[in-house]
Amino acid sequence: MKKYIAKFWRGNPQSLKGGYETTREIEARTIRSAEKKARGYENGCIYGSMTLLEVKEKNEEGGEE
Questions:
Q1: What pLDDT sits at residue 61?
Q2: Separation CA 24–CA 58 (nearest Å)
Q3: Residue 37 and residue 52: Cα distance in Å, rounded?
Q4: Are 54 and 1 in contact (CB under 8 A)?
Q5: CB atoms within 10 A of CB 32
Q6: Among 43, 38, 63, which Cα is nearest to 55's?
Q7: What is the structure's pLDDT at 32?
Q8: If DSSP codes are grouped into helix, strand and coil, which group holds residue 35?
Q9: Distance linking the first and last C-alpha atoms of the chain
Q10: Which partner for 33 in 10, 22, 28, 51 could form a disulfide, CB atoms 3.0-4.6 Å apart?
Q11: Distance CA 48, CA 30 (A)
Q12: Strand 2-11's sheet: what is its strand order?
C-alpha cells in the first residue's frame, strides 16, 4: 500500500474567508483508488462543504511529491 495526501477546501460559512484548506492521509494501492477514497471524505462531509482539490503521492520523507 502506498500513502497519498489529499488536499481539500473545507467550506465553512462561519469562517471569515469562507473556509480553509485541509489535508488527509490516505492509504491505497493506486492513485485512482486514493481519489475514490478522497471522494468518500468529500461526500461524507456533514456540516458545510468539502471539495477535493488534488491527490498526490506522499514521498519517503513524509512530504508531497
A1: 54
A2: 11
A3: 11
A4: no
A5: 10
A6: 38
A7: 96
A8: helix
A9: 16
A10: 28
A11: 29
A12: 19-28, 2-11, 49-57
Q: Which one-letter amino acid corresponds to residue 49?
A: S
DSSP letters spanning 6-61: EEEEEE-TTSTTSEEEEEEEEEESSHHHHHHHHHHHHHT--SSEEEEEEEEEB-TT
Give the cell for residue 4.
Answer: 497519498
Prediction pTM value: 0.80
Give the residue from 37, 39, 52 showing the smallest Cα distance to 3.
37
Taking CA atoms, 28 is separated from 11, 44, 49, in Å, by 26, 18, 24
Give the per-residue pLDDT at 20.
93
Question: What gap in Å lies between CA 21 and CA 33, rounded to an integer?
Answer: 22
Look up cell 471524505; give the residue: 41
- Strands 19-28, 2-11: parallel, antiparallel or unpaired by DSSP? antiparallel
The residue behind cell 462561519 is: 14
pLDDT along the chain (65 residues), means of 10: 95 88 95 95 86 90 55
